[in-house]
Amino acid sequence: MADFLLYALLAGLALALVAGPLGSFVVWRRMAYFGDTLSHAALLGVAMGFLLDISPTIAVTVGCLLLAVLLVTLQQRQSLASDTLLGILAPSTLSLGLVVLSFMHEVRIDLMAYLFGDLLAISPTDLMWILGGSAAVLTLLVALWRPLLAITVHEELAMVEGLPVAALRLTLMLLIAVVIAVAMKIVGVLLITSLLIIPAAAAQRHARSPEQMALGASALGVLAVCGGLALSWFKDTPAGPSIVVCAAALFLLSFVLPRRGV
Amino acid sequence: MSAALIRLQHVTVTYAGQNVLDNIELSVEPGQIVTLIGPNGAGKTTLVKAVLGLLKPNSGSVWRKPKLRVGYMPQKLHVDPTLPLSVLRFLRLVPGVDRAQALAALKEVGAEKVIDSPVQSVSGGEMQRVLLARALLRKPELLVLDEPVQGVDVAGQSELYALITRLRDRHGCGVLMVSHDLHLVMSTTDQVVCLNRHVCCSGHPEQVSGDPAFVELFGKNAQSLAIYHHHHDHAHDLHGSVVSEGTPAASAHVHGEGCKHG
Lengths: 262, 262
Description:
The complex is a heterodimer of chains A (262) and B (262).
Chain A: H1 3-28, H2 32-52, H3 56-77, H4 82-103, H5 111-116, H6 124-143, H7 145-153, H8 155-160, H9 165-187, H10 192-204, H11 210-235, H12 239-256
Chain B: E1 6-15, E2 18-28, E3 33-37, H1 44-52, E4 59-64, E5 70-73, H2 87-91, H3 99-109, H4 124-136, E6 142-145, H5 154-171, E7 174-179, H6 182-188, E8 191-196, E9 198-203, H7 205-210, H8 212-232, H9 252-261
Parallel strand pairs in B: 3-7, 3-8, 5-6, 6-7
Antiparallel strand pairs in B: 1-2, 1-4, 8-9
Helix pairs in contact in B: 3-4
Membrane topology (chain A): Multi-pass membrane protein
Keywords (chain A): Cell membrane, Ion transport, Membrane, Transmembrane, Transmembrane helix, Transport, Zinc, Zinc transport
Function (chain A): Involved in the high-affinity zinc uptake transport system.
């Protein structure tokens, strides 16, 4: 197998595994729009990376983490509804990223790669970032699984029972920020949330416990990555969108399949 | 007094310049059932939140016995329909709980048959019992119940109050609960605190129901309750509600419990 295909496969599989449980939380806690905002802002991170001459991967990771903290702070003020706030920040940061990039004539970047991903151009360094980031997020998710589930079910109940609810909520947002930064190379800023949400939503109908849904979402994500890469390899389609198309097909399939008796 | 589980002194909570709670004094002792009653917007839930530490009062002090174990029963539980969660799994969000313990707690509240049902499919009355079971699994010294009979039919309500009294007797815990149905609460409570942003009056149910402040606050209400009482022949729990006649039955407490099943 060609090296680049192996890299692409490993990166895609790592992302699919971590996107399963994390995406389940995004679905349960209705954070899809939050993920969207972070991913749109990732492009601004790329621009800042070029501007400050630091690695785009680092710039995007730091940028996403900062924005997550900013969003949490702003949401606590609650002068604007959460969706309004996100609706302002998402397009603004994306546009700002594009404007900043247009000023840098000396930098030639492939905008399409950042918007829709360039899975087949992943370097060994990128792969290390993706594997390392995914492993770190997955470890934390497993370690914090029960408390995160508890705050998802009822925040006040969790708080009375002694859980550090605000810290857990922030941790979850930071984990999403890391995954988005890591996933940008794979499916691009416009498609990242779909990889978090679609497998989780597809697994939901047939799951009977939170864990089943998370693992099912990981499994479906793996299938989508394999299917998308195969499509890209044999039919020469763009890899990122092919993965999303496969995930969407699996989602539709989950509706056709009969639901197990409850 | 030194044995109190919680003690609030001069507690004032302000929202947008308005006093929601004004100079509240409240304490709960082990084995004591304290009921907060008051009209909508009287600040009952706010007071509960201050007791639980979910909300910091603007002034005054909230003292809790060190390491107090609190079992909290929220008004209702809304779990996102996308989260596949069985009652058992919900109860096991309390650390260190296995199936046997969960089943024992459910049996204690008479809801063992829903153990494997998804939480979203459990009826209102059963859900209240499940929430009570979760509070019990914490082996609480203090049970805090925010409108424990919400969404439960009348027969179920008196049954639930009887259950709460039984749990208090068995576990020796203090109970603080919120209610706005006076007639049922009277028979099962040791102390009534009548709240309308400030403590209007408090004391034993018999004292309170004759208090002019109480009559003023609930005058209309109490009358309609009296009518209701005659029509439905629920003599056992309405001993204290005959406000105008002012001669509450002395043995009401005992009578209330016995009558339900007799």
